[in-house]
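Internal tracking record. Fields below are filled automatically when a chain is submitted to the structure queue. Please do not edit lines marked as system-generated. If the sequence contains nonstandard residues, flag them in the REMARKS field before resubmitting.
Queue: standard
Priority: normal
Entity type: single polypeptide chain
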Amino acid sequence: MADETPINPESGATPDDGPQAAAIAQYIKDLSVESPNSPQVFQWQGQPQVDVQFNINVDRIADEVHEVVLRINVSAKSDQGTHFLVDLSYAGLFGLRNFPDEALAPFMLVEAPQLIFPFARQVVAEAVQNTGFPPLLLEPIDFGRAFVATMDNAQAQAQAGDVPLLNGAANGSADALPEGFDSALTDVDPVDPTSSKE
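SYSTEM-GENERATED OUTPUT FOLLOWS
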């Protein structure tokens, strides 16, 4: 799916007037779905522990084009075993022009993931439903809070001399992004994922 949708363009502005961003495309990059204990799992009693984690990766595709990949890992497990597993990498392709260096990381790690998350959420819901369970509906992720926490942690480690604060692109450009940006999501709101299948 591709669409040239401007993101917050300035009214009447030309491309050379200021920062410009557009969503070029979004797509499933990788998807793995497992229910390794079917059909026995549908006879299990009790509610599994649902764990959801996310990670964001950013790649420069061209001078003004970046790919943002939101990876979501979902696991539902109980004492009896694994109910289902979902591993999704959902990507968005974004065109950026005249972006200042200091605005690049917040856009790539906050704004872009927020734009593609609703579509990734739908993919996860349908994937879980296709394993025979009710759809799993994820709560929205606060990417802004995760970004601030990651930056604070990176700054503390940099001051301690452990790691550099920013991890630039291999070609030495100004595409500086926080190193190791990932986070665990604990406030998941599944819709009855343990309902037994008749």
